[in-house]
Amino acid sequence: MNTEKIIPPFAEDDDRVDGIEKVTGRATYTADFKPANMAYGVFVTSTIARGAVKNLLLHEARNAPGVLDILWYQNCPALPGYRPWAADPQKKGFEWRGLKIFDNNLVHYFGQPIALVIASTWEKALKASALVKAEYIQETFEVDFDSLRKDPSRLKPSGEYKRGEPDAYKKAAFYVESEYHMPIETHNPIELHATIAVWEGDKKLTVYDKSQGPKGTQNELARLFGLETANVRVITRFVGGAFGSGLRSWPHVPAACIAAKLVNRPVRIQLSRRQMFTMVGYRPMAWQKIGIGAAADGTLTGITHHAVSNTSRYEDYREGIVNASQFLYECPNVNTSYKILPLDINTPTWMRGPGEASGAFALECGLDELAHKLNMDPVELRIKNHAVLHPQSKLPWSSKHLLACYDKGRELVGWHQRSSVPGQLTDKGRRVGFGMGGGVFGAYRGNATVKAVLTAEGKLTLMSAVSDMGPGTATAMVSIASGAMQIPASKVSFLLGDTDFPPGPTQGGSATTSTLGGAVSIICESLRDLLKEIALKQVTGFAGLQKEDLEFGKETLFSKKDNSLRISLGDLVKATGKPQLELVKEAGPNPAVMQKYAMNSFSAHFVKLAVDMETGAIELLKVVCTGDGGKIVSPKTARSQMIGGAVGGIGMALTEEALIDLKTGRYLNDNLGSYLVPRHTDVPYIDTWFPDIADPVINPLGTKGVGEIALVGFAAAVANAVFNATGKRIYRLPIKPAMLI
Amino acid sequence: MEKPTPVHGESRRNFIKKTTALTALAVTPGALVKAGENHESIASFFEKTPLKMEINGKAVEVLVDPGVSLLDMLREQLGLTGTKKGCDQGHCGSCMVLVDGKRVNACLSEATDNNGKKITTIEGLADGDKLHPVQEAFIRHDAFQCGYCTPGQIISAVACIREGQAGSEKEIREYMNDNICRCGAYPNIIAAIIEARDSGKKI
Ligand code: FES
Ligand code: FES
Prior knowledge:
- The complex is a heterodimer.
- Chain A contains 17 helices and 27 strands.
- In chain A, strand 26 (618-628), helix 16 and strand 27 (686-689) form a beta-alpha-beta unit.
- Chain A is globular.
- Helix content of chain A is 24%, strand content 25%.
- In chain A, helix 16 (635-655) crosses helix 17.
- Chain B contains 8 helices and 5 strands; from the N terminus they run H-H-H-E-E-H-E-E-E-H-H-H-H.
- Chain B has a 5-stranded mixed β-sheet, sandwiched between helices.
- The longest helix of chain B has 13 residues, at 150-162.
- Bound molecules: FE2/S2 (inorganic) cluster (2 copies).
- One FE2/S2 (inorganic) cluster (FES) is lined by residues 85-88, 90-95, 105, 107 of chain B.
């Protein structure tokens, strides 16, 4: 068990600490900054999908009003991180990942940036960018995933797994075997990606950037430009959503830095919505085949799961599509394979629930299909095969309250009304169906450093170089610290979004609260200890007492033996003679303890919907999302995260599909008018529920994270409900009305 | 399920140039000198259009380049960055402002079309430190995560209630459909609007 003790979070009021800034427009996102004398960069992008730029005709654009310069491969300086072998040996091991913008004239996909027009205003840059004419050398390109994935010679093997007998499902009394298809899904946060670069001389760089990990961005840029890490400062005060698109630095980030150097002025690049499809990644297309077999009583006997997803031709991207099939349910025989198919499109990247979200669509629909064949309730089938020990490692889970999720989810959605025969329930002429799907994601904890400052006024400020794309990191940290120190939340603040603060983790994989919250707990422990020492040594009246005799409450430290003996935290600071107390602490997991356990978050999503059989229109009537994310630190924001995941799942199930034109290689629907994300009328009331039981191992708070499990398994719940309503199995997302009539 | 229909297809690149040298000539010489210092050539200065508006209750005079949207004028020239750019194509609603009381996608509105108008942006809703009831309700119901769509949602919500379009939940959803929230705070946004509507406070 964990030796660190669990501190119950405490919330006098769980409104977001940055709520006022967000509702008044005072929250500053990257493009809201405007350093003095800032210029604007607008990209010119390729109109071929593969080949090279032969020449750019820049004359007209250069002479357009307001244009300062045009950056392209011909005038781009050699960057140390593009040529690691030429740089000093210490840079060894680092090479800029992915597209090396303006490094050469190659074109890898339609919409690739080939030049950057820099002008005094954005309008002038935009106007001039349209005047740049490109001459290309064209090559044939390939973007047809559905046909090319069938050619084994093109696929790159990316992992195989086998336990017991391969393809054992085929020998089972009952089995299903189906293929599933998923289109490209784009993150499309509403905040457009943006970067502002400001140089001070040649050696110091400040960058405002939409990043999920300012520390990571700082490191990447320092190495790319051959600068001291301490001389690169990355500022990310607010992030307007990202969902994975901000987990790495994309080519526009160095482009802004190179441009700022070129024109000797700060430069801002804000991507257009169209460029949000081609420059910041997406969830890859995926084909999956899953076979699941069971005995007549529902005991699983074999699972086989194969997957192919796309990557770009200039960079490999892989994700854990088939992983959950290996361990989510008890099953003696499992084999999986995963391959990637390089295409002439931009590189995909992690998107909310990366891998698992795609895999769960196949696995959870497959189980539903199997349950139907077995004439068994789909929830009962899952309970029957509930894994108590992790089926691969045979380790116990640090905590697993999935069964409670099934129970509560069924109850809240009204599962007892469900008919096992599809198409039996009707409502105002429409067919009504129920469906469910389960989800899982790794529960992680990393290292983080936090600085704490306690002032003579009794105000506590914590800081760490993390950013928050929306879940409410600062709110959760304030809640943790206010509980640990017994100070009202209004007197605690958490500063983030600046690499001048001590290093914090990248926000991803649902690990922020675990990692950072763990560190905040630890630093509060140290601070409590320090304050007790100060009282015992320097405050009259406390002499002779032991640390165990002291307790914190109501902004004071007091003696448990004599409640009237108390001193405010501010006065304790004054007793030291210093204006404030400062502490810096790094904290992380204890690997020796962690490796004795499997650690995951789990979810179960339930959906009730109605299908109009004449139009194929689907209306979600009820949505219930249950999730075992360990202890819930901030109930209000955790609920919002869960709702947000469900809405992402609604998009995956019913609306989202980025289409690539096979003739040109360009995105056909690269705007929010035709790439449909869920809107108000697509989303019903969503019920959420958490077992809210602390995980005793992962961190002192017992929190596991809910960001990914909120989405994983949701699309399957919708598809399964559609089957229950209509008797039609949908194997291709998104589910469109035309598929149902 | 009903698919949202894109209501505005126009791109800002199709803006009609309405600026004329004539209107530019009306500018006072003082402003001319200032523009010159500002690294803008006199020639481009003559293309600028002087505008007068009331923004968040204050009289504002501003010179704009041809083709500048109301959104970019607010953000880049007046420093009112609370209004957000999410698409610049009329698809997302994050740029909503009130123009003479009506909600407008500021990215689709040419700045020069707003001469003489009264504009309210998100910065103009609160009364000093006292939040507007819709802002309060958004915080209480956690009607956002990242907060980027929030200024637009709040402006739309205020218009929704003021215009009497906040009757049923369905009606509110329909009205609010121009405002995308990629973080998916929709259910909380609806709850916040209902609370504000029923608060008895002046919206
Ligand atoms: S920025 Fe105006 S609608 Fe998106
Ligand atoms: S709160 Fe993030 S887009 Fe709405």
